[in-house]
Amino acid sequence: MKDIRHFDRIADALDEEARLLALVAEGDSDFEAMLWTAGQSLVAPRSIGRLPGFERAAKESAQRGWPVALRSSGGGIVPQGPGILNLSLVHVLRGEDARDLASTYRVLTAPISRAASHLGAVSVGPVAGSFCDGNYNVVLDGRKLAGTAQRWTLRRDGSGDSAVLAHAIILCSAELEDACRAINRLCALSGVRPGVRRDSHVAGLPMDRAAFGAMIMPWLAEMDRDYRSRLALSV
Predict the structure, then answer these.
(1) How far apart are CA 58 and CA 54, in angstroms?
(2) Residue 77 is part of a domain; what is its CATH number?
(3) pLDDT tens per residue across span 130-158
(4) Could you list the residue range(s) of the whole structural domain that residue 25 is in?
(5) How far apart are CA 67 and CA 91, in angstroms?
(6) Domain count, the chain
(7) What's the pLDDT tens digit per position in 6-57?
(8) Cα–Cα distance list, 170 to 35, 85, 147, 214 (Å)
(9) Distance between CA atoms of 99 and 58, rounded to whole angstroms?
(10) Assessment of whether the complete model's pTM goes beyond 0.90
């Protein structure tokens, strides 16, 4: 992987993530990675899509310039658009690691934390008022820099190994005022309690998303080499 991919339609990005997960689940690959961006949109878990008010809420959101797509992983609603960078890692986990959620989050958050370490105090944990809050946000000076999610499936070979898709949304230089309003309105109309605050997220980094992505790419190349060397030793 040498470039950041761009998808005008968020649905196309989600389809590509699903394709990469299928590659690893079928045993055709042990490791896939993608840095990507998408057009302005909102992404919600399918659980929200089943709520009675969601269809009308999604239609209104699209009319306001925030089309909504549904994803298979859990969590909350997240924005996409200018200034936002995504990191998708898909890899195999074997043995005891095949059920270790925390280790997968550590692998995902490590390169983001390293890339941001010169910008301030970096930690991993929840941030009240942030969208799709969880225990594995990357936090910069007390504000959310990146949110994370996972999707797991068993490999098809009966080995008991798992294929995992780990995704991070990184707020490089995003203007989030409109995004937070759009998320809160979609929540309210869908019957979910709104509560996303702009000041819970970073105000912007002193670099664009291409520069931040360039800092992550060497780590991804190293991880790819590591998986390939393990595969060669197992043959």
Answers:
(1) 6
(2) 3.30.930.10
(3) 999 999 999 999 999 999 999 999 999 88
(4) 5-234
(5) 30
(6) 1
(7) 999 999 999 999 999 999 999 999 999 999 999 999 999 999 999 999 999 9
(8) 10, 5, 7, 13
(9) 35
(10) yes
